[in-house]
Design goal:
Strand order of the largest sheet: 1-3-2
Number of helices: 4
Number of strands: 3
CATH architecture of the domain at 25-108: 2-Layer Sandwich
Helix content: 25-40%
Oligomer: single chain
Largest sheet: 3 strands, antiparallel
Strand content: 15-25%
Structural class: alpha+beta
Radius of gyration: 22 Å
CATH class of the domain at 25-108: Alpha Beta
CATH topology of the domain at 25-108: Alpha-Beta Plaits
Order of helices and strands: HEHEEHH
Length: 126
C-alpha cells in the first residue's frame, strides 16, 4: 500500500513540475511593407530563425506583414522588430538599418531607390 501511495505522490509531483515549466508564448503581427517577394520572405525567416525565443515565423509578402510566434521569457517584440530592421526591412515603426538595406539585392529594394518593388496600387473603387 505504501508503494502505491508513494508512486501516486511522485506522479502528481512530476505532473505539477512539468506544468510549471510551461513558457508563455505570444504571436505578433508586424508590418513589413518593403518585404514584397519570395526572396524577402526567405531572408527574414532565415534571419529570425537564429534568435533565441523565436518559435515560428511566417512572412506574407503579398500583405506586407510578418507573423512571429515567440517565447516571452526569452525575447520581446521590440527585439524582433530590431532584428527585422537589421535584416534590411522596415518593421512597423522601426526603419531598416541603412547598411543592411544597402546589401539587399536590387530587386528587393524600394522602387524609389531604383529597386524592383513598385508602389502598391490602390484597389479599384466600386
Amino acid at each position: 500500500m505504501k508503494k502505491i501511495l508513494f508512486t501516486l505522490i511522485a506522479l502528481l509531483g512530476l505532473n505539477l513540475a512539468s506544468q510549471a515549466q510551461t513558457k508563455p508564448v505570444l504571436t505578433a503581427t508586424i508590418k513589413t511593407p518593403n518585404a514584397l517577394c519570395q526572396q524577402c520572405k526567405e531572408r527574414i525567416e532565415a534571419y529570425l530563425k537564429r534568435y533565441d525565443g523565436v518559435l515560428e515565423t511566417n512572412v506574407n509578402f503579398r500583405k506586407g506583414e510578418t507573423r512571429v510566434k515567440y517565447v516571452t521569457d526569452r525575447t520581446d517584440i521590440e527585439q524582433i522588430k530590431t532584428a527585422i530592421a537589421n535584416c534590411g526591412y522596415d518593421a512597423d515603426d522601426v526603419p531598416a538599418a541603412e547598411d543592411a538595406y544597402d546589401r539587399l539585392p536590387k530587386t528587393c529594394k524600394k522602387f524609389a531607390d531604383g529597386g524592383g518593388h513598385p508602389k502598391p496600387k490602390a484597389p479599384p473603387q466600386l
